[in-house]
């Protein structure tokens, strides 16, 4: 049985209207209608709430519909990718800050021949790390808000 039909069956068997279910889930009645008509599918958090409200297991709610199962697997992999993306952005920004701190800590000296000795390469590397981290973070945020 597909998710929409199962959702409608659960709702009607308990004598609830779409509006009442929507109120319990803090969504609009139109959202419930779009789920029941298979125009959209809920995310995993909402599926858990639906299972709690109707007092059924997630297995019974999800595994009957391959479309729902595939959507939840896809959502899970997107979440994992988003987490790694966030870790990458933060590590790049942290590496940039470390580069600047190292430049300041090492400092500069003048050797006996009068040549300036300093780790100048740390400055552009620091800017590169910061730039990569910020760009990656902005791309992540844009993609995330586009999906919602």
TrEMBL record:
It comes from Companilactobacillus farciminis. It holds the Pfam family HTH_3. The keyword Transmembrane helix applies. The lineage of its organism: Bacteria, Bacillati, Bacillota, Bacilli, Lactobacillales. This is HTH cro/C1-type domain-containing protein. GO terms for molecular function: DNA binding. The keyword Mitochondrion does not apply. Residues 7-61 form the HTH cro/C1-type domain. InterPro entries: Cro/C1-type_HTH (IPR001387), DUF3955 (IPR025016), Lambda_DNA-bd_dom_sf (IPR010982). It comes from the Bacteria.
